[in-house]
Amino acid sequence: MGRTLSEKVWDEHVVRSAAGEPDLLFIDLHLIHEVTSPQAFDGLRIAGRTVRRPDLTIATEDHNVPTVDWDKPIADPVSRTQVETLRKNCAEFGVRLHPLGDVEQGIVHVVGPQLGLTQPGMTIVCGDSHTSTHGAFGAIAFGIGTSEVEHVLATQTLMQAKPKTMAVTINGSLPPGVTAKDMVLTLIAHTGTGGGQGYIVEYRGQAIEELSMEGRMTVCNMSIEWGAKAGLIAPDQTTFDYIEGKPEAPKGADWDAAVAHWKTLVTDADAEFDEEIVLDASEMTPFVTWGTNPGQGVPLGASVPYPADFADAQDRVAAEKALQYMALEAGTPMREVKVDTVFVGSCTNGRIEDLRLAAEIIQGHTVDPDTRLLVVPGSVRVRLQAEAEGLDAIFKAAGAEWRGAGCSMCLGMNPDTLAPGERSASTSNRNFEGRQGKGGRTHLVSVPVAAATAVRGTLSSPADLEPFEKGASHPPQEPPVTVGSN
Amino acid sequence: MEKFSSHTGVGVPLRRSNVDTDQIIPAVYLKRVTRDGFEDGLFSAWRNDPTFVLNNEAYAAGSVLVAGPDFGTGSSREHAVWALQNYGFKAVISSRFADIFRGNSGKAGLLAAQVDEKVVQRLWDLLEESPGTTVTVDLESRTVRAGEGVDAVEDSFDIDDYTRWRLLEGLDDVGITLSHADDITAYEATRPSWKPATL
Ligand code: SF4
């Protein structure tokens, strides 16, 4: 019988396998950041161990860093200590670090792919659950805890029980204006937050093949949000074109050898998955969350659901609690929900393609006077590219805040947080209670929905905006104020 | 790591599903560079609520948490496990754990005991009716026990054999793996030269 893509990649990395024990897997790339690594380096020091493969390890500063005044010392002393601890550890153990102020600094999951370090067929881990992002290249990539970070530092391996396999096949094409984010939010609402648990998932089908690498990363990024161990996509020409020429991509004969191998990384026709889900992309629409986990979502054109509509008792209680926390009334059209802050950024939607899309929609409009729009590039490279293309000028002209690179309001570990009771539309990946600041209320949205929402002040899609023609002498003065319908 | 064979302590009924890692410990508490002191942040958003279970004196000394399904979803932060341990919890019982949380628990020595949903319900009822009741989680026999008489709960729990063995022996994973260093070296010799390096 044939093997699935993930089984092929897994098998290639087994260092040791014994009955009754998890496999010992070799790790090709270990990504590190300041929050989940200090205790791991401490563990090495206490045991008198070294980093086995500093040449397969790379660190950056992202979770804790400020997105304003990033050229000055970090104001919060506790954050500063954590960042300085990373710097000391990297210096002591010989690990490459891209610190604040470095041109390669940024969110760890944006940095790996843009350096070309993320390649098909690899095993990639990081003390961060959104490591699943790198699966977009056909790699097995997953998040680990700090004890495992220490294990990888010391041994370059991990003990892992082989997960089951699942295929998510998405047929058809996404309608115009519907994005990879809507696709994955639709999927999670379909499966629930525990639906992928215990599985490595392969996303496939026409709609997946038609996605750009950025779109594929958005889908794989949110694998963890429905509980999957990892999510991956078979590498194809889109993948190869993205990697070619990146700083750490193979060159010359190495490139040819690599591509020849990468082309074998597909699920065999006679391979079997333990589970399969099939969805149709052509029926998808802009999708937003109303609750406090990523599975609590509906189409933008729908209304806040009634808890009584949930068949499962646990879901009903969860919905009641979520509506209370979110201060939403069942039956309210999602388009009437007023938003205080819009956040465009994160490892889900903070890449250059995302910023281009947001700028295209915002151009010629202004941000609603009662709403603030925060645009946070995923990395310094993304920021510089956006500035070279004049995107920052478009955002600033519309009244948005243009920031430095980092995780920022995705998790509110730096000063970028929601105030208690504040409501956001966010392109990030988690709408947990308090995720963006204590008492903050988060609606997860796609980039086009975020941009349109910033203009109108209520959850909206670009279709709700008055068209703006580039070069027209009289761009619309006022955004429309009527509530859109679908 | 300390050996874990059996633990008996006051059970705490946390009647919630989908308790994600941001609820267990919000990001602002993750700035410490040590493994201790995280009890401050445990369930921080709920601690101000006088009706929250941990604010009830009867459960204050609790060491066995009984939670709804999908406990520990979200982030990979091991700080969630440390926060529970720093507060005094030795075991968490739920009908479903998020993978990374379960893994982190095993590594850090917190017992994540997976039981049938009905067992969670019965434990909740028992612990709410008689606050302060103790729960025993016996790793040797993989059983949870609580209460007496007609309301007594006794059932088996799931944990994978390997994690059980490591917890029972109190073994350090890195030490086990380093005993296979030759296998790692042999594997490294087979890696293609075009694989990327950071240095
Ligand atoms: S952007 Fe958000 S989800 Fe991504 S690594 Fe940073 S904190 Fe985690």
Automatic annotation (TrEMBL), chain A:
Matching PANTHER family: 3-ISOPROPYLMALATE DEHYDRATASE, HOMOACONITASE, MITOCHONDRIAL-RELATED
Cofactor(s) in the UniProt record: [4Fe-4S] cluster
Keywords: 4Fe-4S, Amino-acid biosynthesis, Branched-chain amino acid biosynthesis, Iron, Iron-sulfur, Leucine biosynthesis, Lyase, Metal-binding
Species in which this protein is naturally found: Nocardioides szechwanensis
E.C. numbers: 4.2.1.33
Enzyme class: lyase
Role of this protein: Catalyzes the isomerization between 2-isopropylmalate and 3-isopropylmalate, via the formation of 2-isopropylmaleate.
Listed name of the protein: 3-isopropylmalate dehydratase large subunit
HAMAP family: LeuC_type1
Location of the region described as Disordered in the Swiss-Prot/TrEMBL record: 418-440, 458-486
Binding site for [4Fe-4S] cluster: C347, C407, C410
Catalytic activity: (2R,3S)-3-isopropylmalate = (2S)-2-isopropylmalate
Similarity field: Belongs to the aconitase/IPM isomerase family. LeuC type 1 subfamily.
Pfam (any one): Aconitase
Domain Aconitase/3-isopropylmalate dehydratase large subunit alpha/beta/alpha: 7-457
Quaternary data: Heterodimer of LeuC and LeuD.
Cited SUPFAM superfamilies: Aconitase iron-sulfur domain
Cofactor binding annotation: Binds 1 [4Fe-4S] cluster per subunit.
One GO-annotated biological process of the protein: L-leucine biosynthetic process
Metabolic or biological pathway: Amino-acid biosynthesis; L-leucine biosynthesis; L-leucine from 3-methyl-2-oxobutanoate: step 2/4
GO molecular-function term, one example from the UniProt record: 4 iron, 4 sulfur cluster binding
Automatic annotation (TrEMBL), chain B:
GO molecular function: 3-isopropylmalate dehydratase activity
SUPFAM superfamilies according to UniProt: LeuD/IlvD-like (SSF52016)
Chain ranges of the Aconitase A/isopropylmalate dehydratase small subunit swivel domain: 1-116
Keyword terms, alphabetized: Amino-acid biosynthesis, Branched-chain amino acid biosynthesis, Leucine biosynthesis, Lyase
One CC-aspect GO term: 3-isopropylmalate dehydratase complex
Source organism superkingdom: Bacteria
Pfam families the UniProt entry points to: Aconitase_C
Classification via NCBIfam families: leuD, PRK01641.1
Assembly behavior: Heterodimer of LeuC and LeuD.
Protein name listed in UniProt: 3-isopropylmalate dehydratase small subunit
